[in-house]
Design a protein that fits this description.
The protein starts with a strand and ends in a 7-residue tail after the last strand. Helices cover 0% and strands 61% of the residues. By secondary structure, the protein is mostly beta strands. The chain is globular.
C-alpha cells in the first residue's frame, strides 16, 4: 500500500492513505531520501482516522521502532 507522508520526525510520522490500518499493527514503511535511496523503517500504528469522505482518505500516526536518522 502506498502512503503519502504528511509530517515526519525522528520518532514517527503522520501518513495518509486510501486504506485504513488497525491501531496496534506493526508494518514496514519505505522512506525515500532526497538522493532517492530507500530506507526500510519498522513502525507501529498508534491511531488511524478518516480525514476526508470524498475521496475516502485515512490519516495514520505511526511510531518508529527506532529513531530514524537517514544518512
Amino acid at each position: 500500500m502506498a502512503v503519502a507522508v504528511v509530517e515526519l520526525s525522528s520518532a514517527g510520522a503522520l501518513v495518509e492513505s486510501t486504506t485504513p490500518v488497525r491501531p496496534g499493527a506493526t508494518t514496514e514503511l519505505g522512506l525515500d531520501d532526497v538522493s532517492g535511496r530507500r530506507h526500510a523503517v519498522r513502525v507501529s500504528v498508534v491511531r488511524c482516522w478518516v480525514t476526508t469522505l470524498d475521496p475516502l482518505r485515512y490519516r495514520c500516526a505511526v511510531r518508529f521502532e527506532r529513531l530514524f536518522a537517514p544518512g
